[in-house]
Design a protein that fits this description.
Blueprint: E1 9-11, H1 20-31, E2 36-38, E3 45-49, H2 53-63, E4 72-74, H3 81-84, H4 90-99, E5 104-109, H5 116-119, E6 124-128, H6 133-141, E7 146-147, H7 162-169, E8 175-177, E9 189-192, E10 199-202, H8 208-215, E11 219-220, E12 249-254, H9 257-273, E13 278-282, E14 294-297, H10 304-320, E15 325-329, H11 337-347, E16 352-354
Parallel strand pairs: 1-8, 2-8, 4-6, 5-9, 10-11, 12-15, 12-16, 13-14, 13-15
Antiparallel strand pairs: 2-3, 3-7, 4-7, 5-6, 9-10
Helix pairs in contact: 1-6, 10-11
The structure holds threonylcarbamoyladenylate and magnesium ion.
Length: about 350
């Protein structure tokens, strides 16, 4: 961690027509090796020049992140791929056509121009073309290749607003571009196309079904389903770390609605009697059933996009309220459930209480 505080400038460019001066200022910071946090449609990214090993090192430092956890390289046009990857498989082109710009990251064999510092020593590189005007303009103004992990301190929930980035990164990075709330709220789907079968290394907004529709087949990396297993290493190194964690202890409760409600209610009562501060993350349909220091209405069950968008903010909201124990309902919704529950179960240390 860098101990010398720097002054972090915050700008709020227009999200539809970002002001040239702001984008150029930010681009210049990245070109000279500095760090700029910026909005994307998934979560905020902490950007540095992907082709500059020094910038990647700075990113790891700012996040407090282990340097064997590789970064995603963000590009602003498909043509930019050629310079950094060895070959572009047919399947990658198909996915790019279907989902770029958008919340999909693909893994390719890298060319030497991408430094090992950026890929955590791997011979492959993760690439994404995000769907956010500020992000795209910034990438263009920075020379075309921005390495960007989520802009949180390592281990904290990813930021979906500039305020949350400021909380984690003020005094640590050069600039923050405020683009309002992230539209999706969960990180991109990661697909590895370097093997025979397309492998999903991290679930996200682009579901397995959507990928199968384009490619005919896709499988989840077996190492990311359920609890981490001895001897089964996730292909995305980041999936190993305890991520997305709030400071309080998170417990997910699953089962019939009435049983879940009464279980959580009685746990909250008992814990409060012991002087603990409790919170509940609940759907619009049930949140009035609970009594706790903080009861968060995460949205209607059928609005899975709304639940995804609000998830990380809910966890951070619990931290703001110094919550000791957080109970969450399960949100195994049809399309985004895999991604939502992947983040939530990780944050809960993989424990789900079945009632
Ligand atoms: O939506 C997103 O992807 C956001 C925004 C900012 O674009 N970024 C993001 O980055 O989530 P980060 O660093 O928090 O997560 C990157 C994930 C990690 O799990 C990492 O291990 C994996 O991508 N990854 C990166 N390069 C890889 C590679 N070459 N092979 C396998 N996994 C890789
Ligand atoms: Mg992250």
């Amino acid at each position: 961690m860098n101990n010398t505080e720097i002054k972090t400038e915050v700008y709020k460019p227009d999200i539809r027509e970002p002001e040239r001066e702001i984008i150029e200022k930010a681009g210049a910071v990245i070109k000279r090796g500095g760090l700029v946090a910026f909005p994307t449609e998934t979560v905020y990214g902490l950007g540095g020049n992907a082709l500059d090993p020094g910038a990647s090192k700075k990113i790891y430092e700012a996040k407090g992140r282990p340097s064997d956890n590789p970064l995603i390289v963000h590009i602003c046009e498909l043509e930019a791929l050629d310079r950094i990857v060895r070959e572009i498989p047919e399947n990658a082109l198909r996915l790019a056509q279907a989902f770029w710009p958008g919340p999909l990251t693909m893994i390719f064999n890298k060319k030497p121009v991408v430094p090992n510092e950026t890929t955590g020593g791997l011979d492959t590189v993760a690439v994404r073309l995000p769907d956010n005007r500020i992000a795209l303009e910034l990438i263009k103004a920075s020379g075309g290749y921005i390495a960007a992990p989520s802009a949180n301190r390592s281990g904290r929930p990813s930021p979906t607003t500039a305020e949350r980035v400021i909380e984690d990164m003020d005094g640590v990075i050069d600039m923050i571009l405020d683009g309002g709330q992230s539209v999706i709220g969960l990180e991109s789907t990661i697909v590895d196309l370097t093997a025979d079968t397309p492998l999903i290394l991290r679930p996200g907004y682009i579901s397995d079904e959507m990928i199968k529709k384009v490619l005919g087949s896709a499988e989840y990396d077996p190492a990311i389903l359920g609890k981490p297993k001895e001897g089964l290493r996730p292909r995305a190194p980041g999936m190993m770390y305890r991520h997305y964690a709030p400071r309080g202890e998170l417990k997910i409760v699953s089962g019939e609605e009435e049983k879940v409600c009464s279980y959580i209610r009685s746990c909250c009562r008992e814990l409060e009697a012991l002087g603990k501060r409790t919170a509940v993350i609940a759907s619009e349909e049930t949140f009035l059933e609970y009594e706790a220091v903080k009861v968060i209405n995460i949205g209607r069950r059928e609005d899975e996009e709304g639940i995804a968008r609000a998830l990380y903010e809910s966890l951070r909201d619990c931290d703001d309220n110094n919550i000791d124990v957080i109970f969450s309902e399960e949100f195994m919704t049809p399309r985004l459930g895999a991604a939502i529950m992947n983040r939530l179960t990780k944050a809960a240390g993989y424990e789900i209480i079945k009632v």
